[in-house]
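Hypothesis: this fold can be encoded by more than one sequence.
Test: take the structure tokens below, design a sequence, compare later.
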């Protein structure tokens, strides 16, 4: 009976190890995606700053009468589009960070379960060895 229980615990342990390994892989994938999204966000922020500088320059030129007002409106429309895109990218990064934290919490829970099962296996082996 003890031997059968040890085999059952070993099977559960192997299943938990596989599950924990998959959870770790998911966390690594999420971290990679988060870093890519953060890089994309930084790129968008740089583009946004460039567009904002262009808008200021266009307004100065328009105030001097150097540029047609229509071009300034076009730049403003582009700027608003970029702001919306950058805002969406930031939202995606926040969502990914939340998901990453949930996955890390799940991984910690699995690691605790794994440690408990490993302790049970050791205890069962000791009992089996003692007869």
């Amino acid at each position: 009976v003890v031997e059968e229980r040890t085999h059952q615990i070993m099977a559960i342990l192997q299943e938990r190890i596989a599950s924990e390994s998959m959870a770790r892989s998911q966390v690594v994938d999420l971290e990679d995606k988060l870093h890519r999204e953060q890089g994309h966000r930084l790129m968008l922020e740089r583009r946004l700053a460039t567009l904002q500088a262009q808008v200021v320059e266009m307004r100065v030129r328009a105030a001097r009468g150097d540029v047609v007002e229509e071009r300034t409106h076009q730049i403003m429309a582009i700027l608003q589009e970029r702001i919306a895109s950058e805002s969406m990218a930031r939202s995606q990064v926040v969502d990914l960070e939340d998901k990453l934290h949930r996955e890390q919490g799940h991984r910690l829970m699995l690691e605790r379960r794994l440690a408990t099962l490993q302790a049970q296996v050791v205890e069962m082996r000791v009992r089996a060895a003692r007869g």
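The mean pLDDT is 79. The two ends are 11 Å apart (CA to CA).
Hypothesis status: open.
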